[in-house]
Amino acid sequence: MESTDALAVFTALSQPTRLAAFELLMAHEPAGVAAGDIARQLDIPQNTLSTHLAILARAGLVEAERQSRSIVYRAVIERARQITSFLVQDCCGGRPELCQPLIAEFTPCCAPKEPSHV
């Protein structure tokens, strides 16, 4: 990721409503959330939400898909991975043991589930 792309992501997330919308969408992956439901959950007018979602989309953080009469938004997980990698790419000056606590922070939420043998 280039610095200019990272700045676009940080700019998009630097506003409280956009950050809340992105967090909401991340929590509902991979199903996504309809625009009206996002507006209701964040308690903001739909036209205001539309502006915020457009900014997140331009930064590559969300994508939309029409489903019948609704527009469902999803977080772009790959973009979240890219910005996280950008932030830690030079982590700890080549001393991976110093980065272990940082890596451990991601493990509980992102560890693959063991297959169930029912």
Could you describe the 3D structure shown?
The structure is a single chain. This protein has 118 residues and is mainly α. The protein is 60% helix and 12% strand. Strands 1-3-2 form a three-stranded antiparallel beta sheet. Helix 1 runs antiparallel to helix 4 and helix 2 packs across helix 4. The termini are far apart. The model has no long low-confidence stretch (mean pLDDT 87).
Present the secondary structure layout.
Layout: H1 3-13, H2 16-27, E1 33-34, H3 35-42, H4 46-58, E2 62-67, E3 70-75, H5 77-88, H6 96-110
Antiparallel strand pairs: 1-3, 2-3
Helix pairs in contact: 1-4, 2-4
Strand line-up in the sheet with most strands: 1-3-2
Sheet with most strands: 3 strands, antiparallel
Q: Secondary-structure element sequence?
A: HHEHHEEHH
Query: Which radius of gyration do the C-alpha atoms yield?
Result: 17 Å
General shape = elongated
Q: Which residues sit in consecutive blocks of at least 5 with pLDDT less than 50? A: none
Mean pLDDT score: 87
Quick summary:
The chain is mainly alpha-helical and about 120 residues long. The chain is built from 6 helices and 3 strands, in the order ααβααββαα.
Which short descriptors sum up this protein?
elongated; 3 strands; mainly alpha
